[in-house]
Amino acid sequence: MDGFQSVVHLGEIFKVCGDTLRPFVTGTEVDEYGIVAIGQTENVDGILKVFALVMQASHPDKLPHEVKITIKLTNPRNIVDSTWCKCLGGNGSCKHILATCMRLLWLVFSH
Q1: How far apart are CA 29 and CA 35, in angstroms?
Q2: Helices marked H in 1-109 — which ranges?
Q3: Among candidate residues 91, 88, 49, 81, the one with its CA nearest the CA of residue 65
Q4: How confident is residue 90, by pLDDT bands cut at 50, 70 and 90?
Q5: For the purposes of burial, counting CB atoms within 10 Å of the CB of 31, is it exposed (0-12), middle (13-18) or buried (19 or more)?
Q6: Is the CB of residue 54 less than 8 Å from the CB of residue 37?
Q7: Domain range for 38
Q8: For position 36, what pLDDT does the model report?
Q9: Is the pLDDT of residue 51 over 90?
Q10: Out of 17-21, 38-42, 98-102, which region has the weakest mean confidence (pLDDT)?
């Protein structure tokens, strides 16, 4: 797919996980059922800002968590620059952030 690139590379997702794979495993589960909406809020000067609403697995009747991810658009692959989640464990590598990153792994954009 010449001229196309995944929004997030798998290697970047592992960097977001940090020293443990637990967020990756739980994020995979959330990705299967819990992303309500995902989209870009800004795409200016090589910076892509993503916003997502992710269901609370333990409280599906409550409002979804807000997730924000900033990505530097670079070649040969994009770099996750910053992450934020409104959940109590939103330390930059919670399962909601990882679920959003995994969804971005499957999205592509054209240069």
Answers
A1: 11
A2: 10-17, 22-33, 95-105
A3: 88
A4: low
A5: buried
A6: no
A7: 4-106
A8: 80
A9: yes
A10: 17-21
Name every residue whose Cβ is closer than 8 Å to that of residue 78 and which is 6 or more positions away in sequence: 5, 6, 7, 8, 9, 12, 48, 71, 72
Give the mean model confidence (pLDDT) for residues 47-56: 91
Mean pLDDT, the chain, as a whole number? 82
- SS3 state at 68: strand
Query: Is omega for the bond preceding 60 within 30 degrees of 0, making it cis?
Result: no
Of 13, 2, 3, the C-alpha closest to 106 is 13
Alpha-carbon radius of gyration of the chain: 13
How many residues are present in the chain?
Answer: 111
Residue 111 covered by a domain: no
Specify the amino acid at residue 107. Answer: L
- Total domains in the fold of the chain: 1
The token duo for 39 is 């989209």
* C-alpha span between 108 and 7 (Å, rounded): 5
Residue 75 lies in a domain: yes
